[in-house]
Amino acid sequence: MAPVRVDVDGAVATLTLDNPPLNVVTVALTRALDDALRALLAEPSVRALVVTGAGERAFCAGSDISEFAGYMAPGRVVPAKLALQNEVFARLERCARPTLAAVEGLAFGGGLEIAACCDLIVAGETARFALPELKLGVFPSSGGPLRVTRRVGTGRAREMMFGGEPIDARTALAWGLVNRVVPAGEALARARAWAGELARRPRAALAACKEVIGRAFDADQDAAIRRSLELSDRAFASDECREGVRAFFAKQPPDFSGL
């Protein structure tokens, strides 16, 4: 069975990491995730993505440590593992469509790095989150130090990475790592429902929001504002804007589905 399964229900696609028992990240899983993302991003009818893990034990418990022996030589780990992981994870992060992670069980190491690529994280109340790589003598190398820090701030990020100890879902919510905590076993259903709501939003305007938010920590403020104005000009000239204004005056919900 492929380590990533894809299910499309209307405008929402669900990608399931399926590498039992803990859905660990292998090179094969990373390649399968890349193939799935490329195929879905080429399909215009897919307007929102949900990423989840198979089973109840883990969203993804991190890298497959049994592969490490092949990486423990100078100049080996980046071409053999990390370059591809960073490329694929960045593809997920930069997707113009809304992305949600539905987390049950463990989101450790590379699993948390995948979840942090998503716009929104919905966690079951028994989920746990950790960046434990220092215990193996390495550190998070697929975007975790950047993406997790942007979510929780430098102090909390240091606590997670230096100590490597798991935090529970309620702590993750309080720190801003996740967006919603729901009863155990309901994360996927809640994430799909939320994705369905977002899939009905205006596509171009939502993509513009994602781009501008993504620049908030990286770009010069004046440059970011100039780009925001360019995107706003496009939005105001779009069919989506015309539909939104029409629906406002007609006192109807807007229908962006065909736009």
What descriptors fit this protein?
single chain; 6-stranded mixed beta sheet; 10 strands; 259 residues; 4-stranded mixed beta sheet; alpha/beta
CATH fold description of the largest domain: 2-enoyl-CoA Hydratase, Chain A, domain 1
**Which parts are unreliable, with pLDDT below 50 for 5 consecutive residues or more?**
none
The secondary-structure element order is: EEHEEHEEHEEHHEHEHHHH
Q: Which homologous superfamily in CATH is the superfamily of the largest domain?
A: 2-enoyl-CoA Hydratase, Chain A, domain 1
Largest sheet: 6 strands, mixed
Number of strands: 10
Helix percentage range: 40-55%
Total domains: 2
Average pLDDT value?
A: 93
Briefly note the structural class of the backbone: alpha/beta
Q: How would the global form be characterised?
A: globular
Total helices: the number is 10
CA-CA gap between termini: 36 Å
Which strand order do you get reading across the main beta sheet?
A: 1-2-3-5-7-10
Fraction in beta strands: 15-25%
What is the secondary structure topology, with strand pairs?
Blueprint: E1 4-9, E2 12-17, H1 27-41, E3 48-53, E4 58-60, H2 77-94, E5 99-103, E6 106-108, H3 110-117, E7 120-124, E8 128-130, H4 144-152, H5 154-163, E9 167-168, H6 169-175, E10 180-182, H7 187-199, H8 203-214, H9 221-236, H10 239-250
Parallel strand pairs: 2-3, 3-5, 4-6, 5-7, 6-8, 7-10
Antiparallel strand pairs: 1-2, 8-9
Helix pairs in contact: 1-2, 2-3, 3-4, 4-5, 8-9
